[in-house]
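agent> fetching stored inputs for the KE4 docking request
agent> found them:
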Amino acid sequence: MPKPFKTDQSQKQFQIAQEHLVGGVNSPVRAFKSVGGTPIFFARGKGPYLIDVDGNRYLDLVGSWGPLILGHADTAVLNLVRRTLRKGFTFGAPSTLETQLAILVKKAFPSIEKVRFVSSGTESVLSVLRLARAATRKKRIIKFDGCYHGHGDSLLVAAGSGAATLGLPDSPGVPEEFTSLTLSLPYNDLASVESAFSKYNDIAAVIVEPVAGNMGLVPPKQGFLQGLRDLTSKNQALLIFDEVMTGFRVAFGGAQELYGIKPDLTTLGKILGGGMPVGAYGGRGDLMAQVAPEGPVYQAGTLSGNPVAMAAGIATLKQLADRVFYRQLEENAAFVEEGVTRAIPKTGVSAVFQRVGSMATLFFCPRAVKNYAQAKDCNRKKYASFFWAMARRGVYIPPSQFEAWFFSGALAKEHLKKILKSIEDSLKETAG
Ligand code: KE4
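agent> prediction call returned; pasting tokens
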């Protein structure tokens, strides 16, 4: 049985936080609503580890929801950020670091001819949808059930991630006028997209998580992404890949590199900022030329492209650019997938492990999960007890069935073996 797991300090800190912060957190999914218990407060991270305020140490499979593909407090990132900080934090004016990061983004994403940096994934999606509607002079947007594209009003329809975790597919405060132009269809269901295009002639764009991570990890079915590419081209609509999570994650060039599909526009975030607040949108030059100040589509941001965040992104992407990194990451994640898949039948639990690159999810259900409806059928109570069984064994996975796990490059073989053993033991404990 694992060592006693103290959470006194987290409980004390959560008590205080709740007096000042809404729900004691700054993002709902951190409130542990779907796994129960007190949210864990972390004191620091280094490499593959997180240490909480009670001194418990964990191998981290959340990586701050994706950004920390290099692990915590990566030395090269730290050094460049430190050097940059000494020269000032932000100028609200152009700096060469923005250009450097933009060049790195274009090197990774050949479909991106021009970039605009913002400060979050939500901001990148808000901006890219405004651009898509302006460029096509059409209003309707297609998204997919269980996909989450940030908390912009018109996209909080059957959204995944925290909205699904809290069972808030549609948030109060969003007037139906704002969502009436959003069509949310089942993920991996090309026929539903085809019939939408035959029914509506005002569809500006289809936005998709090319690998879904916000309903848990659901890969695109063979032909799904190509089908979206063909249907949008045929109907003069734009294809937007929301690669906030998959960008620099499933490959240096994201899902569009992995599956060989060229979207018209792409949104980025998370890894792009190396742990600092950075989002971006970019794509075809003729489309991006319509964004102010080149064109009339307005979008702005006080801290967009600030040097410190740019430095963290540059130092991160430079370590990923040689792609050797991804070979090792793939080998490590495949090692875990193989071990878990072999172990599941021995544990008496009905579960399935799904993975694309270093993104994965263990679903508590008997068969593969291909869409949101199937993800919602999984046994979330089992997931909750599994989450705590893993935490007690020193492995931190997302506190929700509707999130993806992220393997970082800081995990070595001995860590992977500990993770595997913890998963097998935790599954057996959950079966009981
Ligand atoms: P942010 O505004 O949280 O930087 O990005 C929004 C976003 C956009 N697109 C995709 C595909 C995303 O996954 C996200 C944010 N992801 C969630 C985790 N599933 C962020 C975690 C949170 O909300 O606390």
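agent> quick read of the result: The first helix runs from residue 8 to 20.
agent> awaiting further instructions
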